Queue: 2 jobs
Job 1
Amino acid sequence: MNFLNLIWLIPLFPAAGFVINGVLGKRMHKTVVGTIAAGAVLLSFIVSAGAVFQLIQLEPEHRSFTLKLYEWIALGAAHTKSGELANFSVDWGFLLDPLSSVMILVVTGIGFLIHVYSTGYMHEEDGFYRFFAYLNLFMFSMLTLVLGNNYLMMFIGWEGVGLCSYLLIGYYFHKRSAGDAAKKAFIVNRVGDWGLSIGIMLIFVTVGSLEFTKVGEAIREGVMRGDFHVSDPLFIGIALALFIGATGKSAQIPLYVWLPDAMEGPTPVSALIHAATMVTAGVYMVARSNFIFQLAPQAMAVVAVIGAITAFFAASIALVQNDIKRVLAYSTVSQLGYMFLALGVGAFTAGIFHLMTHAFFKALLFLGSGSVIHAMHHEQDMRKMGALRTKIPKTFWTMLVGTIAIAGAPPLAGFFSKDEILWRAFSSSQGHVLLWLLGTAVAGMTSFYMFRLLFMTFFGESRVDHHTAQHIHESPASMTTPLIILAIGSIVAGWIGWPVWLGGTNAFEHFLEPIFEPLPIPHAPAIAYSNLAEAGMAAVSVAVALIGFSLAYFKYYRRSWEQQREIRQYGAAYPVLLNKYYIDQLYDALFVNRAKGAGKSLWRFDSNIVDGLVNGSARLTKRSADGSSWWDRWIVDGTVRFVGGFIKTFSWPVRLVQTGYTQNYALVMILGVLIFIGYVLWGTP
Amino acid sequence: MVPTHYYLILAAALFTIGIIGVLTRRNIMVILMSIELMMNAVNINLIAFANHLQQIAGQVFAIFVITVAAAEAAVGLGIVIAMFKNKETMNINEIDLMKW
């Protein structure tokens, strides 16, 4: 069986699931709905695994398989920047190469586990079928995004996942906050999508194609011919436009504000969309466009700096948040910052590697938090938790694994990917020691806030209220099994990128190498570091993580959490951190309220000027109609009535003849006949 | 052989009785019967002249008149029944719709 020719089925299965559940789900049993949804994703995963397995069998340089289903848009000739005409033709085509292989395996694999988890988590919810229909639609969009062989198909998927994100954040649409969060996510993403669409248009205008492979080749040839240069303002522009798109979807400064609010959605959605898959679309897109970014080192510097700052900024907010999902949300923003830091310093593989490992442990942590919330009857506030360790042991142990993994302790997944990023931030010719310092500080903070979460939730004194405490229960197997599988994944996922300095081969990096082949442009000479230096750096980051852990240990484990103590420790910084640096308020003042004000003044213009004109013309029409009605009633009708009345008045003698008695008429008739006969007989001479 | 003017006198008498019936009686049924009388008077005239002039057309015409009279009686009685259903009366003076 040739799975490679079947890759078009991968997005199709969830699409079919969406249609079936969306149309018929309301009338089907919950088990059937859940089975269809999860089964569709499982089929996708099987085909993906088969296809990737066959791709690996090929020689590394041939590991790029394009499947074109049909020509989707054929606009014909279009002008490009160089003055030549290019054929604007977009195929409905799929591209399977190492990069999309990683993405589809992560999306379908983790997606399947989250679908299974959702059947347990969402069991009591209304609109069960709606949830799974949206979830399948999301899977379809996400797989189109990562499997599409051109920028336009990626854009379709990009918008599709945005839509599903909106729908699922607003799943509890009867809650005002959920509706607001959904709108916020959608609107903030519009800003990013604007950048992405500009970038895509510029790409076509520059190279005359939208297919990833063709764009890559065209740029490579252009560089060799000398048409394209490093630091060409055009490429910096394209790269920055694309990065604006990435900041929207992947929640980077300045467009990260929607992601923490997106936690209003159900927890499996947070795990799937807002941690493991959709938010990494920006990372995927930048990695996919690496040939463009390579020509724009300035843009890459922007990416790296934004990534590092976002990582630090979000981690600092996560330090004091009390909502278990918000901590994880800011953690996600922070980890995405890591990925962009990696991309920005040219370590595309490291970014994708962290994307993959992060998908495992962040999905695990979110699902674990969902399990906690499930046990606590929808209580998300960690101030009302504590000492849950023995009550929900499976959740505790799996979340412990996730926490250790994200903290970066060897040999769990997070260690390998995070360490590679930090090392490349330091050692790459595009890196900088300040970026490394920021990254390392974030590693410490990550460790701190994650263990704070763990200790506040599972250790210390119980702050659970009496009523809830009696009903705490471990989640069903449909929820704990995915947790256990993800926990195993969080341990072993990093091993495929076992670094050279630890005696490994870093198979993951070699697998992705063909995608990120450097362009033939002058590179700054890479400084050769010994394995020992890398090992030393790793030791430093592990040590920093350990410091974070011990701080959390002393502050939240040795003594149970107390609000007053925490507030005192941070001093003046506490309200700033708790209120997320007042960024939401700032955006409200700068953009939201301005936009609202502009809308209000437009509304006033509408209600006063436009409506005034309409109402005025209506009043004028009414006046003239009144006049016309008077004319009609008195002059026209008057004449008619006068004529009628005149005739009526003067016709009374005549009408007396009409008696209505048949016999009168007959008599008159007979008299007439007699007169006539008389006239005939005697009248004529 | 009866002379023709005997027939004519009989017919004129019958016709006159019919006219008087139509003009004076108030019952619709009687009026209808009077009309029949008038028509038969005409028939006698037709036959008499047919005999007198030795022309067959008069007899044929009389057959036609009888046929039409039968149809007229059917229609007339139908109208009378409909009228009675609506007005619950046979009195012609109460049926004065032909007024202004």
Job 2
Amino acid sequence: MTAPFGFSWGTFAAILVVAGTIALAIIWSALSSRRGNGEEDGDE
Amino acid sequence: MSDMAVYSTVLAAYLVLLVAMGVWMGRRTRSAEDFYIGGRQVGPWVTAFSFVAAYFSSVVIIGGGAFGYRFGMSTLWVGASNVLIGCTLAWIVLGRRLWQFTKRLDTMTIPGFIGKRYGARDAEIFSAVIIFVFMIVYNVSVLVGMGKIMEGLMGIPYTTAVVVAGLIILIYVSIGGYLAVVWTSFVQAWIMIFGLLLLAFATLAKVGGLTAANIQLASIDPGLVTTPGVWGWGGLISFAMIVSLGVWGMPQLLVRFYSMKSTRVLRLGVVLATLGGAMALLPYLTGALSRLILPPLSGAEVDLAIPMVTKVVLNPWGGAIFLAGVMAAGMSTFASVLIIVSGAVVEDLRGGSRIQGGHAAGGAAGKREVALGRAASFGAGLISLAIAYRPPALVLVITAFAWAVIASSCLWPVVLGVYWRRGTRAGALSSMIAGTVVALGWMIAGRMMGGNPLGIHGFIPGVTVSLIVFVLVSLMTKPPAPELVSRAWGE
């Protein structure tokens, strides 16, 4: 059975990795905001 | 309006905009810190998109398309590793710490960071020499790529294309410094993204969509749609690593982290860089699809896959926009590298980082440092330009080594420099020398044997040996002085 759009699953996984990376960046950003709470290095 | 007139109009408007931005930013450049890192005042949007623009050069677009053509859809994994390792993880792992460490150590360059972090002037000079030599060679490859695509799409002579593109960059970088580099790169990133999307969608429309394309590719060779497919694991993994993990040792990208105005920039920046970096998939995808449109290509013709498919699927205006995108990719990378080479000469080899008054000094001292930086960036650019004008065959061979050598030598002294207190001067220096020698030796052997040993790119053995040597030599030598460590860690 092929993956969506006619990809092989091994190749389609590359697209899933990109989607997962975008999610990772958003989650890290949100956690970083909560943790930093405005007290970051360099802020005046 | 003829095709040539359309291409010329779009390009002329674009080049005028770049020079205007250089002149504008030049008025805000008063100190060495302004010239090399924009006075540490760059925000998230400009940091993120200038990172992306410097990362993906015209070589990546044209070369990535060629890889896509040859090896098919498995090359999407290279794009995915660019996004995950080269963009997102680099920002998360290195962003905050590099900002903090370079600020505490009062340094504006990677060789300067290595020198002060390990108390190692010899390692600073070694990395500055490696950066000077191989970054200039790297820039030659970027210029050659730009010249070839202008020749292919516009029909203007290669030498004219190289001189026009090179001189425009020299002017705006030497006048505007780092701020000109990041602001022009910011604009260039959007042009690149738009151009790549335009070409990818036009190519997809031409082949009848993704599903139809995958079915047709599989009928040519099932290895064109599977992973690792016709490429094999050795080639795919080692190439993906050099163009993604290699970023962690590339000074023109790492500088984005310590030119941020605060570590708060990382929060939005990491998301923007990830989204922008996702465009890395497009050259590979378009290259793979182009096999269904173009007549069979072989040998060096494969490098023409992207220019050729552009002419087939886009009208002259679309082609001009894509050409501007490729030019943008090349120019932003070339400009970013020029600033790094200038810093290596003025700050590291000359010892400017130890000059009285500090980097942020304005006035006469600041003006003198800025003038030196401008002269060095102009000189470094002229050297690249002169070589690219009629590149000797040997230089073209060395360009293929440049990225791997720089990354193999700088990666671990930088990464472990911000995470491992036990790293020593001897460990850093020997790791840099070992990484350089092994990566170079492996690639030269590959060149002589007609293919990389075991099908593995020289970056992999280079960076592996560099890590082992760094750890072993550090553990075998006296721990670094406590004051050196406490200053770097801010204790």
